[in-house]
Amino acid sequence: MDIKINRRFNEKELPDMKTIKADAKKIASNITIGETLFMKKYGVRSEAEYKRKMMDAGKIMKHSVIGWNSWTVTEEGIRKVYDSLVEAGSSIDRLGICCDWIMGVPEEYRDRFQASGSLIFHSQEEWNAIGQVVPVNPHLGDHMIGSLNSVENVTNGLTAGVTTIGNLAQYFTYEYPGLDMEAYRTEDYVKAMAIMGEFKDRGVCMHCNLDDGYGAQFHDVANLLGWAKLERYIAEDLMGGRVAHCYGNLFSDSMLRVVFNRAITMIDKYHTPGTFVNGNTIDYGASLPRNYAALTSYAIADVACQLTYPSGYAVAPVPYTEAIRIPAPEEIVEAQLSMDMVIEKAPYYARYIDWDKINADAELLATGANVFFERVMNALDDLGVDTCHAGEIAAVLKAIGPEQLEVAFGAGGREKEAMRGRVPIRPTSIVQTIKKIENDALSKQKFENEGPLQGVNVVVGSTDVHEFGKEVIRNVLRKAGAAVFDLGTSVSISEIADTLIETGSSIVCMSTYNGMAYSFARDLTAALKDAGLADTHVLMGGRLNEAMDGSDVPIDVTDKLIKMGVNADNDIDTIVGTVGSYAGISFKSE
């Protein structure tokens, strides 16, 4: 079996499962789940209990993400969203509290790092206040389970009354540069799952956003579903918990969203209500009218699915300004009110959807998912992995990576010329979209000869877990002839410097999304200077913003990037020409 395993530690040195579970049980015995205003209002002990009641009642539930860089401002925003919706005759069921990445770092190490401008809890009092502001269910996703601080965050979240905590997927993709603690992180990750499992009878669920993990990097939806089954095996079968999945960020095909919801329900043997279907952010850009249309296109499909086959997923209208800045409370409210109209009109669409075809396509995906799952599990066994040890499985899957998993074990048939050597049972929206953007960008180029960037070495990567922009840049530059060295997501600055030296490259292209553009560029340019690489050309694209000078929300930092010598054109249509000019290559383009 030709599989390269990029181990960061020896997974066999992890404590045995009996020890991990015993530790988790002891920690759980000292946790009392808090009672939130939401629980009091609806007479429930958990979000899952509430959702089952709403599913029986045929109610469509709604979700939004909220969070700024202080608890005071976040609390004010929560009140404003809730009060504005009530005043408009509307409501919202759950709010995802968006925490800063630094919340995933143990407190004793936080002074080493620059926060990215999202919420940081500074005391247990702030944690406990999460569910005491308004009677809306609080949700914790990013940088909780899967981080370097999983057990502590789970303990604090449960104590605050949060009964759905994630994000399992981020163990595989989100890194904390400067802290090489992978063995500790893996043990902490598994232990946190076991703690959550101790409360499954109370309705506690582990949230997992497939689009934030390796799931986002698969090209075949069947393999994505198979990955979800692997996550369930680890968290449910081995750790005794319940998983509530989430997806949607990277699903621009509206009907594929429906097919996938049916398919992921088919592999859920415990019938756990999902967390939420996120809005499609692929189609969001700087044009607000286009964003309005994108919202209604995916929202109608999501609502129609929940009306016909209730599975507990709240629908999440993404604010129209999401691709431009962190949305203000008024913009969150506006999106929620738009969703109300969609909920009103969706029944007219639902009755004309061919549900037999939807379910047939979903069953095809489920069959492919089972093939992928079985192939991966058999391979792990052949590799000597203890398939009854959650930590060993997670660590080795992370070390193998999604591309190798898909190439070696994918459900699609083999074909030499296909991407990753397999024909997808159903290609993901991200693959379709990347291809479209690539083709559009390349069609605007007028090269004097094929592959004008032949001989040019370029290093690319993403500052965070979002790989969409990086994928487009990588593929466009490769098609223009460049030798591209892809560092993946959540790239460390030291890794960039090392790769520049190893490859002899003087050009690095970084994609960013999570509000850290300025600090990353500042630290990168300083590190390159220290390494004798001051002549390196740095290009950055994506969401070029960050919270600056005490602001509550990130602001555009394009001008600041330009002043420090970073190319911030943020234009895929001109990147080939720009890279060529840095390499001393001249050619014509439109």
TrEMBL record:
<dbReference type="InterPro" id="IPR036724">
    <property type="entry name" value="Cobalamin-bd_sf"/>
</dbReference>
<dbReference type="GO" id="GO:0046872">
    <property type="term" value="F:metal ion binding"/>
</dbReference>
<protein>
    <submittedName>
        <fullName>Methylmalonyl-CoA mutase</fullName>
    </submittedName>
</protein>
<feature type="domain" description="B12-binding">
    <location>
        <begin position="453"/>
        <end position="582"/>
    </location>
</feature>
<dbReference type="Pfam" id="PF02310">
    <property type="entry name" value="B12-binding"/>
</dbReference>
<dbReference type="GO" id="GO:0031419">
    <property type="term" value="F:cobalamin binding"/>
</dbReference>
<dbReference type="InterPro" id="IPR006158">
    <property type="entry name" value="Cobalamin-bd"/>
</dbReference>
